Amino acid sequence: MSRTEPAGTPLGDTFHVFDTTLRDGAQREGISYSVADKLAVARHLDALGVGFIEGGWPGAMPKDTEFFARAAAGELELRHAVLVAFGSTRRAGRTAAEDPQVRALLDSQAPVVTLVAKSDRRHIERALRTDVAENCAMVADTVSLLRTEGRRVFLDAEHFFDGYKFDPDTALRVLEAAMTAGADVAVLCDTNGGMLPLGIAEVVTEVAARTGFRLGIHCQDDTGSAVANSVTAVQAGATHVQCTANGYGERTGNADLFAVVGNLVTKLGMPVLPDGALGELTRTSHALAEIANIAPDTHQAYVGTSAFAHKAGLHASAIKVDPELYNHMDPVDVGNGQRVLVTEMAGRASVELKATELGLDLAGHPDAVSAVTRTVKEREAAGWSFEAADASLELLMRSAMGEVEQVPFALESYRVILEHGTDGVVVSEATVRVVLADGRRQIATAEGNGPVNALDAALRAALTPTCPWLSEVELSDYKVRILTTGRSESFGTDAVTRVLLESTGTAGSWTTVGVHSNVVEASWLALVDALAYAALRERGPVTLNS
Amino acid sequence: MSRTEPAGTPLGDTFHVFDTTLRDGAQREGISYSVADKLAVARHLDALGVGFIEGGWPGAMPKDTEFFARAAAGELELRHAVLVAFGSTRRAGRTAAEDPQVRALLDSQAPVVTLVAKSDRRHIERALRTDVAENCAMVADTVSLLRTEGRRVFLDAEHFFDGYKFDPDTALRVLEAAMTAGADVAVLCDTNGGMLPLGIAEVVTEVAARTGFRLGIHCQDDTGSAVANSVTAVQAGATHVQCTANGYGERTGNADLFAVVGNLVTKLGMPVLPDGALGELTRTSHALAEIANIAPDTHQAYVGTSAFAHKAGLHASAIKVDPELYNHMDPVDVGNGQRVLVTEMAGRASVELKATELGLDLAGHPDAVSAVTRTVKEREAAGWSFEAADASLELLMRSAMGEVEQVPFALESYRVILEHGTDGVVVSEATVRVVLADGRRQIATAEGNGPVNALDAALRAALTPTCPWLSEVELSDYKVRILTTGRSESFGTDAVTRVLLESTGTAGSWTTVGVHSNVVEASWLALVDALAYAALRERGPVTLNS
């Protein structure tokens, strides 16, 4: 069995940042993690330095069982975090050892188990259809078995706050059953999410005083207060806080890990992450949104792209004089940045800054800066997005600086034919006609399992003989967004489409963008930029037009 | 001058719900209200029953000046709310009567003025470049003039919490200058948004005790706690709360009106809106998102479409028994509704509940429940997503119950040709071959600005002669997601594509789903479901196969 305590934070085991993105977060409408996604999420969370990663419910969900199996087989090496399996107590009228669900928790080989138990008498009687005594026995038996097998156990006391209000004795008896049997933390859950901070403070303080148990907190966001409730619980004595990345979770979601951690570190001065980790909050938040395939919340506390954005007006001029008067903290501390929206000067300044970041010196090219700024503004207004497509932006900048065309071919035409035949088989075929750098004309046809795949294959067939480096380049990700640019614009299949294409080669990976009303043409534009960038990186600039 | 007190709530003037969507909310990145928009927003807010509507800053913003002029000219009749103009105190070294900005406040004819004043000594000295005495004189003079002219005045004490912590005496002197001169409410503003609930409670309690003034609260959301901070301030004695619709505002935004009101009414039992108004929260939130041209936040407290959506199989079975155990309140009370999400996590109970929600009775069809549950799990594992595609799910259920095929045609084949010609023009052409319900074969060809648009047009051309109701149906939204479903599956343009298609007809709107490695085929599958559902809704089930 691996270690059961988090590593690397100054507070060690005395304070737990417990992430449940992979279990409770996955309940969010619209999230459907693959096992590969789950492993990737866990790696990001571990790199950030959370103490515990709840990976899922082995036995109940096949994907979760596989996740734990692959983690145990060595696919997941955790530097800071400890892996946790979630499960419920044994069923009524059965021993814990006989319960297949409890067996699955042990089989998962997770060194820590979070055990969910009912602590509201109404739920015990009406949902579980048993009595308080048997419920407590179920808790105690299951904790005992897990402890005997060497697991560390946290108790998730479901519906605790509602239950405590309705019948405090029952709620406390459930905690006691678990803690006496060897659980380490009694996690008070606001499962229905109806609490407010002062109520949380009162109950946490009272339960701590009455029991002396180590307490944790788990809040849902149904009153829009999950972050505040969690932080308040910590101020009232909880030393274990359960959160999810970006607040993902059922209904309105859970407490957002990044806001909770941001508040604990910067407002309460609690070093709950390893040194230097705070600066990774923004990057981690966006990476996890990407894996969940959910657009990042631009107005999210600490990590949103608008979180430190000031609109022209009352504050704008004063910020120039004294930025610290107008931000609650330095955005750089959480890996974010201040933005002023959006003057021509700010535009030029950010273009220059971005060029420096990309290794280009635009300082001596004022006309190029103007041209790039203008083009970016025009294209962004039409739906392009360069903030996620550095490679396309770099090509634009190089072109404005007078560098010659980098695409190793000129397009004459392409044609894609998609057929759904009478036999139900769907075929995609693409033909491209291009003129190569040496003046030769090439025609190539290829099939693919979709129009863009076929186009990519045909283009490669046409170019590979003269561009052998192309075999090193592959498309690694492809994203499509449908945009409705104006209010009165019609939606539907005639909307504008934005394609982001990620390519990987020996020089790493790069992202390009294309926008068009036709999804295939938008993909083509991104594909051409991807190859131009590949040409630049894989064998230096091409001198097609010189 | 019109009345200065809100009308219609049981609490009357003793508690103020003060909305600043049109002033502070408009600072949100991406919002740009026209004057017509502002009038529409004010009408929605008044209909909901807020006490005060801050319309903008006349004199400083031309649109705001026009808004107040048109309101005064009779374009805005308010039943519940009082209109408020926002502005700042006179400048240093000038009388209030001479100050054009103060003049503009009077010219606006708004019966109430919110006056913003610095209450943090650092801001007084470093941003305003004056001293505390002159700052207090500016406040007192301006309040006096406004009172002499018959206006009611609220003081927005900017940066109050930071200022009070840094130098409490200065902060209190500013409040005193305003209140002694005749202001009604001293609004404590957490302008930089760095506060947490317990800190808010402490300061509000202390200031109330030291001054006896009527206090208000204005919170920004930089710690993710604006709603909780606002409600906590009310619990600590504030009787005036400033919010914005959907939490719109600069940076991370302001306290969300709907969450604050939802909490005050349902958690603290304070009747802060007129009778019956609570049930309008959801509708109002969505209408105001529409005007702001911002997609509604699906996970927003109380009003989000996911706010009462349950996914987990664990909960779904219990919800069937006793819904009130799994919601913090009855969603109907705020004009929202409970939804059960059918996903791979779903068990039979979720499928049955969902069927009831869709108006189908699966209770007597155990085999159909099994078949639907199995199909949903299989398809979701392959990338389908039914939780957002009720129409596809309903078709699946009807089919499992033995209802005949609803599609009013059988597909023979389709072909799509996309050409990017030598002239750079991109053309999409689709041909469909279908057999109609009466056995006739139809071929139709159409162009579109993309492959799906062309297919949709060709299919309509083939079907409209026999399905005239089709002219009432249009595609209203189209979403594409690229999925990587399996462990070793490659990414790139050969990944699986999921299409969600929203259609609108006389029967409302409905969403269907299609999944395939080919984006066009995936779209086709969603399109066929959309038409099948339309056939069902627009003219009842078809008996093609019977």
From TrEMBL, chains A, B:
Its EC number is 2.3.3.21. It comes from the Bacteria. GO terms for biological process: isoleucine biosynthetic process; L-leucine biosynthetic process. It catalyses: pyruvate + acetyl-CoA + H2O = (3R)-citramalate + CoA + H(+). GO terms for molecular function: (R)-citramalate synthase activity; 2-isopropylmalate synthase activity. The keyword tRNA-binding does not apply. The keyword Lipid metabolism does not apply. Transmembrane segments: none annotated. Keywords: Amino-acid biosynthesis, Branched-chain amino acid biosynthesis, Isoleucine biosynthesis, Transferase. Gene3D superfamilies: 1.10.238.260, 3.30.160.270, Aldolase class I. Pathway: Amino-acid biosynthesis; L-isoleucine biosynthesis; 2-oxobutanoate from pyruvate: step 1/3. Residues 15-282 form the Pyruvate carboxyltransferase domain. InterPro entries: 2-isopropylmalate_synth_dimer, AIPM/Hcit_synth_CS, Aldolase_TIM, Citramal_synthase, LeuA/HCS_post-cat, LeuA_allosteric_dom_sf, PYR_CT. PANTHER family: (R)-CITRAMALATE SYNTHASE, ALPHA-IPM SYNTHASE/HOMOCITRATE SYNTHASE. Belongs to the alpha-IPM synthase/homocitrate synthase family. This is Citramalate synthase. It comes from Pseudonocardia cypriaca. The lineage of its organism: Bacteria, Bacillati, Actinomycetota, Actinomycetes, Pseudonocardiales.
